[in-house]
Write a structure and sequence with these properties.
The complex is a heterodimer. Chain A is built from 20 helices and 42 strands. By secondary structure, chain B is an alpha+beta fold. Chain B contains 12 helices and 10 strands. In chain B, α2 runs antiparallel to α4. The chains are: A alpha+beta, B alpha+beta. Chain B: Its EC number is 6.1.1.20.
Chain lengths: ~800, ~375
């Protein structure tokens, strides 16, 4: 919403400055988005006359002017404008002036050997227009030495405010003035509306079809008008707020839209056939609107039609065919009320924005329907002459009066602000509310223009908004007396810990879009129709992600394209398996590319880093799982990872039937489809799937048991078929004696010459920890024998000869 | 052997002493020791001869020979120590590395946590200290939680303040949305928990908007207090305390402006005092500029009612602010879009080391 300071003064008398207005507007909830103050911008530009203009001695196209600036001796100015000549008056700027159109500050210059002590300006240099063909020529009677902006009436600052959707009444200058006055700035002097008597009955009748979203429709004919350009004061007013003057009749409707928040419409009566009817459109109807575009209408949209069809889109925009132009002599003036939701939906479906729609969908003052048409009539008679008919009104002006019981103590209860009863009542009254009753609870009737006021909380807002939020006392808010407990849920804590654990492994946390292209959603196990956005912002941001991997893969490639091929990225975030809340999971996912190993990347004097492999991803996943307190020792690894992993170099983490996640090398075929260079290794784990920690009665750790006896280590080299999992050997060995065997690990792995092509050698080291006494050789023999037998039984392994 | 046949002990000592001093290594020294003090060694033989002497002879020869033996032992020991030291010195002379060679970087130094994660940890720390816990909700929301319960009537222009992403229309005509704000978590919290309620809800939010300062996805943190007496003055205090703690300044001026949100009444926007006079730099707690950082207000009675509570009994306040925005302000990150581009150069520069965990004891960002 834009208006000028002088426009505001038409409604608000008082001794106030621009700064008072902007500060008060901000304070009462009309956020000032900008002030355009041409006078301030054009300070320093003054009216001057050219005394003489001689050809520049060293340049054909330049002239040397002597300029009378209205004070002191004439000033020498070098000027290239073709119209620079003796006797004209123009706009002069001395050295030191900021020239907005050129974004420079003028200095004293010497142009081709002649000193120039200022400039005669073009309109473009003052940002008044695009015109830079010559210098500004002013009438010869323009007063010498006077500030140009002041003389040219440019010293009227334009204020732009943001009006929140609840405050339709702030979309008219009169409404803004009322709020400012209530806040103590000036007195409202908005002129009262004087009805204009009709000389004859309105010859055109209006019918409102049943079900049409139109409570009331007032119409009046003014005949014998002379339309044409509106007077300069009206054109200037509209131009100042960015509107284009059209003709007097149209300009009057635009003026009242912004002055009183009363959108109106004018039909050229000669182009209206028969009577008007307000009805819903029928399928197939369309309208060529005043913006020159044709809109296809549907039965949910309300129109104003005559015998010839649709003439206007109700509350949104008039039709081109029945619009007023300079030939109009008889004009029908419409002042109507529309149901806000219908107007909003119509405008949204047609993608049609207008000043009328903007107001009607917010809900304008129903009580101003008839005053609006009277005011318009008065302006038409003043500017265009003519003879008015009586007003015909279809429907009825709705009475939206309602009484709200307002406990005055609620203000302090909700805000802490202490205001006297008198102060509160006076504030509401100043805003147009009617307050009656006495005692602690008053009866408050909101004014007709405040449809947004529903209940007592709204009244509290009105009171504190006007009294000033700075009066709300900052009040300490102590924590309750409950014992301090963790404030994070298990999942939140895991999210946090997983991030820090992965970053500690040299990985960098990315935050990628929750959306991926459909094809990628499908590739990574998603792509369900219910997870495809109905209105994606771009084709490659179309579906909710089923996995964090596509985003990370794309990021890794983007980094590689920037020359960072050894990237280790991770993300911990939401993935979507369906559209229900329980289908959203938190995944921790990592990706390594090139030689981005945990202990260093690239070449180094101590040894070149190898390419990343599935075990890096496995270690990353286990680190994150361990940080989340997952029972890592109990995890099983199976070789059935999803299709986006390399089938031979990937695994699935399980806890019983529960799949916790996957890891491995990404499938080379998939990378090719994605046009991504591999190899890439990654993992994805679902933090929601980690079993919940058991509640513990105490934080005491189990007692440490230290054995007095030295542990014994024994090594075994087994030959097994290549298909046998090392985990099975470890499990078999560890299971022989759970009390004495405290550790089993693989210390060597060999495939190649000396061993069957189908076999491999797996060397285990087993730690035996005596508990009660040192073990005899025979006892150790017995255990190692059992290990060999058990591993052979479970896996078919034989001891390497 | 008699005393008369005893050799010249002084000469012998000089001879043996010279040999010890001349021993080039421990092996030569050992040979000398064996030749003198071994079973058949020359000094050992002299000691044995004491047995065949008369007591008088023994009285003078005994101390002399024993003295010789002791001095010889001392000399050998001294020589051995010297030889060992020399050998070690010689070995150390050859054992050298160039300690100026660079080592591999520690992974914990190269890894980074995203600024959003860090800032969420920071603000959680601050609000936890004020007794708030952390609530969450799903990104895919229904119309009820995202709009209706929050007092956005169907068709109301306020809905248009949110450029909403929709999922496909379902059989019953309804359609789910990507939450346009974290406020639906307010509703979920009130529906599932009895007051008193003090929660913050950080999370991801979506609007179909993309330009220099808007991304289709961004992050908000919501705050909610519901009890029987918390009012706007408390909210003011909380926000002031938060801003001081978060921006790590002693004082910060805030400006509360009336505003409008469907789910709060009264509603306000909050500006924070700052100094933007230095190009590309914002300082908080000083200066004469104002920067909008959040919206807030008293929870609207309709919202309280929609969540099954009696607005005449319960009241409270809520606020919402952009996590990305306050992160940008605090740490001087110029471009929002870079947050989501996963450029390792940007992440390494603006990200945080994993061990820099915000704490109240150690400071949020130290």
């Amino acid at each position: 919403m834009k208006f000028t300071l002088s426009w505001l003064r038409e409604h608000l008398a008082g001794d106030y400055a621009l700064e008072d207005v902007t500060a008060t507007l901000n304070r009462i909830g009309f956020e000032v988005e900008g002030v355009e103050d041409k006078a301030a911008k054009l300070k320093g530009f003054s009216i001057a006359s050219v005394l003489s203009a001689e050809k520049h001695p060293n340049a054909d196209k330049l002239r040397v002017l002597m300029v009378d600036t209205g004070g002191g001796a004439p000033v020498q100015v070098v000027c290239g404008a073709p119209n620079a000549r003796a006797g004209i008056k123009g706009v002069f700027s001395p050295p030191g002036t900021y020239i907005p159109g050129k974004n420079i500050t003028l200095g004293v210059g010497t142009i081709r050997g002649v000193e120039s002590l200022g400039m005669m300006c073009s309109e473009a240099e003052l940002e008044l227009s695009q015109d830079h063909d010559g210098i500004i020529e002013l009438p010869v009677d323009a007063p010498l030495g006077v500030a140009y902006a002041e003389w040219a009436n440019l010293s009227d600052p334009v204020i732009e405010i943001a009006v929140t959707p609840n405050r339709a009444d702030g979309l008219g200058v009169a409404g803004i003035a009322r709020d400012l006055a209530a806040a103590g700035l000036g007195t409202v002097v908005t002129p009262a509306v004087m009805p204009v008597a009709g000389a004859f009955p309105c010859p055109v009748s209006v019918g409102i079809a049943e079900g049409a979203p139109c409570p009331a429709f007032a119409l009046r004919l003014v005949r014998g008008v002379k339309n044409g350009p509106s007077p300069e004061w009206l054109q200037a007013k509209l131009r100042a707020i960015g509107l284009r003057p059209i003709n007097a009749l149209v300009d009057i409707t635009n003026l009242l839209t912004f002055d009183r928040n009363r959108p109106l419409h004018v039909f050229d009566a000669a182009k209206v056939a028969g009577n008007l009817v307000v009805r819903n459109a029928t399928a197939g109807e369309s309208l060529l609107a005043l913006d020159g575009k044709t809109y296809a209408l549907d039965p949910a949209m309300c129109v104003i039609a005559d015998d010839g069809g649709v003439e206007s889109l109700a509350g949104v925009m008039g039709g081109e065919e029945s619009g007023c132009d300079e030939a109009t002599t008889d004009v029908l003036v419409e002042s109507a009320l529309w149901e806000p939701i219908n107007i909003a939906q119509t405008g949204r479906r047609l993608g049609l924005n207008s000043d009328a729609r903007f107001r009607f969908e917010r809900g304008i003052d129903p009580a101003f329907t008839l005053p609006g048409i009277e005011l318009a009539t008065r302006l038409i008679l003043d500017l265009c002459g003519g003879e008015p008919s009586e007003v015909t009104l279809a429907g009825a002006i709705p009475d939206n009066a309602r009484v709200i019981d307002f406990p005055l103590g609620l203000t302090e209860k909700l805000t802490g602000l202490v205001a006297s009863d008198e102060e509160q009542v006076a504030t509401l009254a100043a805003l147009g509310f009617t307050v009656s009753g006495s005692g602690p609870v008053r009866q408050v009737t909101p004014p007709s223009w405040r449809a947004d006021i529903e209940g007592k909380a709204d009244l509290v807002e009105e009171v504190i908004r006007i009294l000033g939020l700075d009066r709300v006392p900052s009040t300490p808010f102590p924590r309750d007396e409950d014992a301090r407990k963790p404030v994070l849920t298990t999942l939140q804590l895991r999210t946090r810990k997983a991030k820090r654990a992965l970053a500690s492994r040299g990985m960098v946390e990315a935050v990628t879009w929750s959306f991926v292209p459909k094809a990628q959603a499908e590739m990574f196990g998603g792509g369900q129709p219910e997870l495809a956005l109905a209105n994606p912002i771009a084709a490659d941001l179309s579906d909710l992600r089923p996995s964090l991997l596509p985003g990370l893969i794309r990021s890794a490639q983007a980094n590689a394209d920037r020359g960072i091929g050894d990237a280790a990225l991770f993300e911990v975030g939401q993935i979507f398996k369906g559209d229900r809340p329980q289908d959203q999971f938190i995944a921790a996912t990592g990706l390594r590319r090139g030689t981005a190993k945990p202990d260093g990347t690239g070449r180094h004097w101590s040894g070149k880093a190898q390419a990343v492999d599935a075990f890096d991803a496995k270690a990353d996943a286990l680190a994150a799982l361990a940080a989340c307190n997952a029972p890592v020792a109990n995890l099983q690894v199976s070789t059935d990872a999803p299709s986006w992993f390399h089938p031979g170099r990937s695994g699935t983490f399980r806890l019983g039937p529960n799949v916790i996640g996957h890891f491995g090398e990404l499938h080379p075929g998939l990378l090719e489809t994605l046009k991504v260079d591999g190899p890439l290794v990654g993992f994805e784990i679902l933090l929601d799937r980690i079993p919940a920690p058991k509640a513990k009665a105490t934080r005491v750790k189990p007692l440490l048991e230290l054995s007095a006896f030295q542990p014994v280590e024994r090594d075994f080299a087994f030959i097994v078929p290549r298909t046998v999992a090392a985990a099975d050997l470890l499990k078999a060995a560890a299971g022989v004696d759970r009390k004495l065997i405290t550790g089993v690990n693989v210390f060597d792995l060999y495939e190649g010459p000396g061993i069957d092509a189908d076999s491999k050698s797996v060397a285990l080291t087993v730690t035996i920890q005596p508990r009660e006494k040192t073990l005899t050789d025979a006892e150790i023999e017995a255990i190692t024998g059992k290990i060999v037998a058990e591993v052979a039984k479970k896996t078919g392994a034989t001891l390497r000869g | 052997m008699s005393a008369a046949t005893l050799p010249d002990l002084d000469a012998l000592q000089r001879e043996l002493g010279a040999a010890v001093d001349a021993a080039a290594d421990e092996a030569a020294l050992e040979a000398i020791r064996v030749a003198a003090l071994g079973k058949k060694g020359s000094v050992s033989e002299l000691l044995k001869s004491l047995g065949g002497m008369s007591p008088d002879e023994r009285k003078t020869a005994g101390p002399a020979i024993n003295g010789l033996r002791d001095r010889l032992n001392e000399a050998i020991l001294a020589r051995r120590t010297a030889l060992k030291a020399a050998a070690l010195a010689k070995r150390l002379e050859t054992e050298r590395v160039d300690v100026t060679l660079p080592v591999r970087e520690t992974p914990a130094e190269t890894g980074r946590v995203h600024p959003i994660s860090q800032v969420v940890d920071e603000l959680t720390t601050i609000f936890a200290d004020m007794g708030f816990s952390v609530a969450e909700g799903p990104d895919i929301e229904d119309d009820f939680h995202n709009f209706t319960a929050l007092n956005f009537p169907e068709g109301h222009p306020a809905r248009e303040m949110h450029d909403t992403f929709y999922l496909p229309t379902r059989e019953d005509g309804s359609r789910l949305v990507l939450r346009t704000h974290t406020s639906p978590v307010q509703v979920r919290t009130m529906l599932s928990k009895k007051p008193p309620i003090r929660v913050i809800c950080p999370g991801r939010t979506y609007r179909s908007d993309s330009d220099q300062t808007h991304t289709p996805m961004f992050h908000q943190v919501e705050g909610l207090v519901i009890d029987k007496g918390s009012h706007l003055g408390h909210l003011k205090w909380i926000l002031e305390e938060f801003c001081k703690a978060f921006f790590e300044v002693d004082q910060v001026k805030m400006r509360f402006r009336p505003s409008f949100f469907p789910f709060t009444e009264p509603s306000m926007e909050v500006d924070i005092q700052c100094d933007r006079s230095r190009p590309g730099e914002i300082r908080f707690g000083e200066g004469s500029d104002w920067l909008e950082i959040l919206g807030c207000g008293m929870v609207h009675p309709n919202v309280i009612r929609n969540c099954g509570l009696d607005p005449d009994e319960y009241q409270g306040f809520a606020w919402g602010m952009g996590i990305d925005r306050i992160a940008m302000l605090k740490y001087g990150m110029p471009d929002l879009r870079a947050f989501f581009e996963a450029d390792v150069r940007w992440l390494s520069h603006y990200g945080f080391r994993p061990l820099d965990i915000p704490t109240l004891a150690g400071g949020l960002s130290n």
